[in-house]
Amino acid sequence: MSRLTWADLLIDDITPGQFRAWLTPWTGVVGGTVAPAFLSKFGFWFLRRPAGAVEMLDVFTGQLQQVADSYEGFVREVNEQWWQEVYLLSELVSQLHAAGKVPGPGQCYALAPHPALGGPNPANGEAVDPQFVLVVDVAVWQLVCAQSLGVGPDAEPGAAADSRGRSSSS
Q1: Model pTM?
Q2: How many domains does the chain have?
Q3: Are 80 and 95 in contact (CB under 8 A)?
Q4: pLDDT digits (tens, 9 = 90+) for 39-56
Q5: pLDDT tens digit string along 83-140?
Q6: Angle at the Cα of 163 from the Cα atoms of 99 and 69, rounded to 5 degrees
Q7: Are 147 and 81 in contact (CB under 8 A)?
Q8: Of 26, 70, 102, 134, which has the highest C-beta tally within 10 A?
Q9: What residues are paired with 107 via a beta bridge?
Q10: Inside any domain, residue 161
């Protein structure tokens, strides 16, 4: 297996139209002004804030967390192998490539079922059988993730649940 490239691990050629469409399902989670740094091939958003901080939207849990105080610090971290294994799931991407699953332009990996619906969460170190990973359009996966977590545009207020199944409004 050849070494993975940046194009194998992330999506960074996001047009303004794609950004708006792909992030729309998360409007209840991501507020304020943000710009895309990139998406992982599993659809995790890495978003830049005007003050310089970078946040990650975990599409398996719906959690938004700061991953760097500055974009410069973020870039340093991204270039570290450990960071790529943790945040870009590079080892799993390598396995998927070996299994012949390689997303094309505008596509990413999707887990079936989504972790919120009982599927494994590789971001938590849970093993994933490549047969349960699909290649889908980014827009579709973003909507599936948000809806699986109860935060999609059609979700009822207060319906979001954390990874233990408790309502986030309780």
Answers
A1: 0.89
A2: 1
A3: no
A4: 999 999 999 999 999 999
A5: 999 999 999 999 999 999 999 999 999 999 999 999 999 999 999 999 999 999 999 9
A6: 85
A7: no
A8: 26
A9: 137
A10: no
Range of the domain at 15: 6-148
Does the residue 1 lie in any domain?
no
Nearest to 7 by CA among 96, 122, 105, 128: 105
Distance CA 64, CA 56 (A): 6
Residue type, 16: P
Helix (H) or strand (E) holding 120: none
**Has residue 170 been placed in a domain?**
no
Q: Contact, 83 vs 77, CB < 8 A?
A: yes
d(CA 150, CA 3): 37
What is the three-class DSSP state of 122? helix
Cα(85)–Cα(137) distance, integer angstroms: 23
